[in-house]
Amino acid sequence: YHAQPSQGTEQEKMDYALNNKRRVIRLVLQWAALYGDLLQEDEAAMAFLEEFYVSVSDDTRMIAALKEQLPELEKIVKQISEEPKAPQKKHKVLLQLFNTSDDRAQKRQPIRGSDEVLFKVYCIDQTYTTIRVPVSSSVREVISAVADKLGSGEGLIIVKMSSGG
């Protein structure tokens, strides 16, 4: 945003700076327009937008040509920061069965209902945990085990459940 050429007349340097600032402002406006809902949930993005707005406001005092983009930037920042927070979304959970042993002899054993399988439970916030449940468990029982492990059963959804046999 503050790039300055090292060569050229003062007018050329000023034109270069103005064009760069305008491009960056347009980019930020497009970014905020496309991802406004997601940015609202991200404190760092909101802090950046507010800091960026203050910086552009300060620059309009010295570069009057930037004033034309300031109202649009102000509108986007206010719109995103004033929107009510979205209601708590459901937690999307991905369950993945994985083998705990590569022993070929063990793979040839018949699977009994009392055998247990280990699942990796992936959450939307990019964390995961593991649970151990009997092979004969129903989907409802698996979800219940996940809810117990995560401490909350609200909004749990199985996105995918796979089995190797």
Low-confidence stretches: 86-90, 99-105
H/E element sequence? HHHEHEEHE
N-to-C span:
56 Å
The helix/strand class is alpha+beta
| Shape by Cα distribution | elongated
* Total number of beta strands: 4
Number of domains: 2
**What portion of residues is helical?**
40-55%
Strand content: 5-15%
Mean pLDDT: 76
Number of helices: 5
| Rg over C-alpha atoms, rounded to the nearest angstrom | 27 Å
Q: What is the CATH topology of the largest domain?
A: Son of sevenless (SoS) protein, Chain S, domain 1
- Architecture of the largest domain, CATH level 2? Up-down Bundle
What kind of sheet is the major sheet? 4 strands, mixed
Kindly report the name of the CATH homologous superfamily of the largest domain.
Son of sevenless (SoS) protein Chain: S domain 1
The neighbouring-strand order within the major sheet is 3-2-1-4
CATH domain class of the largest domain: Mainly Alpha
GO biological process, one term: signal transduction
InterPro entries: RA_dom (IPR000159), Ras-like_Gua-exchang_fac_N (IPR000651), Ras_GEF_dom_sf (IPR023578), Ubiquitin-like_domsf (IPR029071)
Keywords: Guanine-nucleotide releasing factor
Protein name: RPGF4 factor
Highlighted features:
single chain, 5 helices, Son of sevenless (SoS) protein, Chain S, domain 1, alpha+beta, 4 strands, 165 residues, Ubiquitin-like (UB roll), four-stranded mixed beta sheet
Summarize this structure briefly.
With 165 residues, the protein is an alpha+beta fold.
Description:
Helix 1 packs parallel to helix 3 (about 70-80). Strand 2 (about 115-125) and strand 3 form a beta hairpin. About 50% of the residues lie in helices and about 15% in strands. It has about 160 residues and is an alpha+beta fold. It is elongated, with a radius of gyration of 27 Å. The N and C termini lie far apart (about 55 Å). It has two domains: about 10-80, Son of sevenless (SoS) protein, Chain S, domain 1 (Up-down Bundle), CATH 1.20.870; about 85-100 and about 110-165, Ubiquitin-like (UB roll) (Roll). It has a four-stranded mixed sheet, with helices on one face.
